[in-house]
Amino acid sequence: MKTVSTLLLFGATGDLSHRMLLPSLYGLHVDGLLPADFRIVATARSKFDDAAFRASAVDALKDHVPADFFDDAKAGEFVSRLSYVPLDATQRDGFDRLAEKIDPAGGLAIFLSTAPSLFKPTIDGLASAGLTGEDVRLALEKPLGTDLASSREINDAVAAAFPEERTFRIDHYLGKETVQNLLALRFANSTFEPLWNSAHIDHVQITVAETVGLEGRAGYYDSAGALRDMVQNHMLQLVALVAMEPPANFDATSVRDEKVKVLRSLRAIGSDDIATHVVTGQYGNGAVGDQPVGSYTSELGKPSSTETFVALKAHVDNWRWSGVPFYLRTGKRMAARKTEIFIQFKCVPHSIFASRGARTQANKLVISIQPEENIRLLVMAKTPGLDRQGLRLREIALDVAMADAFADARRRIAYERLLLDLVEGDPTLFVRRDEVEAQWQWIDDVRAACREAGLEPRNYGAGSWGPSAAIALTERDGVHWHD
Ligand SMILES: NC(=O)C1=CN([C@@H]2O[C@H](COP(=O)(O)OP(=O)(O)OC[C@H]3O[C@@H](n4cnc5c(N)ncnc54)[C@H](OP(=O)(O)O)[C@@H]3O)[C@@H](O)[C@H]2O)C=CC1
Ligand SMILES: O=C1O[C@H](COP(=O)(O)O)[C@@H](O)[C@H](O)[C@H]1O
């Protein structure tokens, strides 16, 4: 696919645009990665002219770009690429005016950073203004539906104007450097892959813990909950990357073909499994660090049974992963911000050191995605000495901090990579329709089973690691969460 010369940004005045998209585009501009003639046409309902929107974009950059990366002159150059067209996406008449701002010959990437309820009217408006031709590609932000049925409706509306190869579904976790590094770790090294299976791996843990609460998104979050907000998309993508077979190439079809096989192999959780496989929670009063924090319902301002935490035991039912539990947990207002993949290997089959009184522990691989980005392999080593009182072994860490290993590389916002791939037409790090639908299928089954079993969120103190039942979920298998 060719590089396009225009980005059309819907929802340009919104939070995501201000915090992530404009700063990412600025980063690409500063690094010289945008074509010289590249233009960004921004749109939303608010009444700005070009100059006023550019001024608001500079303000957003000042607020959200790290101070040592913000530069007045560069920001001025960057915003000269921007123009603004006020438009209500639910009204067809504004789209022709929008089309006049766009050079069709250079190709167009459209980014919908708006509520999903606007996707269909927006696509209809784009089609009526001739903005869906073969040089046009469309990127969509999550949430892509609230269940499989609504996700299919969105996908059908998109497919009516944009074929799959021109549809770019965002999961911003795929834009994170350390998430991509998981693929490098697995498939650019010969060390791990022979061990990456049920013969050598005891279990996998994936944790996405956040310290933040609702952050001004109460309406959306209360209707979604942790299972749909985080597990349906980001966490299942992490599961797919950990569990997939080696793709033949690092290209969109090969990678996504392998991911979808994993997603389709997830074992459905039924209502009889709920007690042993799912724990949900909602935070009560507590403290994150030394900051007192009110309960979810006090933040929300009304009673709610929405889960702000979920822990699950999942299985990938295929040859490679038979019998290996994948423990997943995510929550708001937890003790620390931590996104981590933890691989627990099996113990050595026989310890030659046991007769000398030494205990061995199984190896562990800890892939920290954020806020620290590092890879740590925990292995056994002999404690130095003459062993007069018996031989002692100790767990030591082979530790690589990405920030040290790649000290000269700027840490980028995930959206920088995704926006550049959109502009250049590389869909490898975007989610294909069959993946999204397989993810929804599994989540719909979990939700139906939770309803049938009458599962209610348990209370956990803000600033903790979730309800104690989440600890029991793994402990009954003899497994401890890696905190
Ligand atoms: N913020 C975040 O961190 C994340 C957001 N998302 C998703 O991305 C999408 C955007 O999120 P966010 O920026 O936070 O939302 P906001 O509510 O902050 O922004 C919504 C944007 O849509 C515009 N808009 C609303 N109604 C219309 C309309 N009828 N026609 C044209 N434009 C309209 C608004 O501008 P105006 O009022 O001027 O029209 C604004 O620019 C949402 O679906 C959200 O769930 C996903 C992941 C993270
Ligand atoms: O998509 C979402 O992700 C964020 C967490 O993203 P991260 O990059 O900070 O890990 C989450 O806070 C939000 O609720 C969810 O919608």
TrEMBL record:
Q: Which SUPFAM superfamilies match?
A: Glyceraldehyde-3-phosphate dehydrogenase-like, C-terminal domain, NAD(P)-binding Rossmann-fold domains
What is one term from the GO cellular component aspect held by the record?
Answer: cytosol
Q: Which residues bind substrate?
A: H172, K176, E210, D229, K332
- Taking every annotated instance into account, which residue ranges of this chain make up the domain Glucose-6-phosphate dehydrogenase NAD-binding? 9-181
Q: Name one Pfam family in it.
A: G6PD_C
EC top class, in one word?
oxidoreductase
Pathway(s) it belongs to: Carbohydrate degradation; pentose phosphate pathway; D-ribulose 5-phosphate from D-glucose 6-phosphate (oxidative stage): step 1/3
Q: Where is the Glucose-6-phosphate dehydrogenase C-terminal domain?
A: 183-482
Record-annotated residues binding NADP(+)?
Answer: R45, K142
Q: Which residues cross the membrane?
A: none
Instruction: Extract the GO molecular function terms from the UniProt entry.
Output: glucose-6-phosphate dehydrogenase activity; NADP binding
- Any idea which UniProt keywords this protein has? Carbohydrate metabolism, Glucose metabolism, NADP, Oxidoreductase
* Enzyme active site: H234
As its record notes, the protein acts as a catalyst of: D-glucose 6-phosphate + NADP(+) = 6-phospho-D-glucono-1,5-lactone + NADPH + H(+)
Family under the similarity heading? Belongs to the glucose-6-phosphate dehydrogenase family.
Question: Which protein is depicted?
Answer: Glucose-6-phosphate 1-dehydrogenase
Gene that encodes it: zwf
